[in-house]
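Q: Given only this backbone (159 positions), what sequence would you predict?
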């Protein structure tokens, strides 16, 4: 198998000057209208972070530049590993998954000692967690311009 670089390495998403400048696990695709869309888990502080959101950015110039990242999936939990796929003439699905409050708290206590994250997690209720915990997705029917409500999927395959 031959691996060939098709462009320069560049930053697609950032939030410079903020503690929330960690973006990871990207996926990209070409939309039906010709634009490139990239999704990632962003506005995070760490690998596991309750502030993570699944965000999207668009390019109209073959990936030379991208719009600022905008949240597509933003629950009270750590929205991770954004995925994107197109279907039909204008359908786009963006997927994510999240971790429980207990998992996030355990990570923060063991690895980061992030008091900011722990204080936030203390504000969440079991009801808030239960409403969004699991594999999530939102669907667009206009090439990713707008997205419908959040749904919970019965299955996931994040990696």
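A: Predicted residues:
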């Amino acid at each position: 198998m031959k691996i060939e670089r098709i462009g320069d390495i560049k930053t697609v998403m950032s939030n410079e000057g903020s503690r929330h400048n960690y973006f990871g696990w990207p996926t990209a695709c070409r939309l039906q209208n010709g634009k490139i869309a990239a999704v990632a888990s962003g506005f995070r502080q760490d690998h596991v972070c309750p502030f993570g959101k699944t965000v999207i950015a668009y390019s109209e110039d073959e990936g030379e530049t991208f719009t600022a990242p905008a949240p597509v999936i933003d629950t009270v939990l750590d929205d991770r590993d954004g995925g994107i796929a197109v279907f039909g003439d204008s359908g786009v699905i963006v997927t994510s998954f999240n971790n429980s409050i207990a998992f996030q708290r355990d990570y923060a206590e063991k690895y980061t000692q992030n008091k900011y994250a722990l204080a936030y997690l203390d504000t969440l209720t079991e009801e808030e967690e239960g409403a969004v915990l699991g594999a999530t997705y939102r669907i667009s029917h206009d090439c990713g311009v707008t997205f419908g409500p959040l749904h919970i999927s019965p299955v996931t395959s994040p990696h």
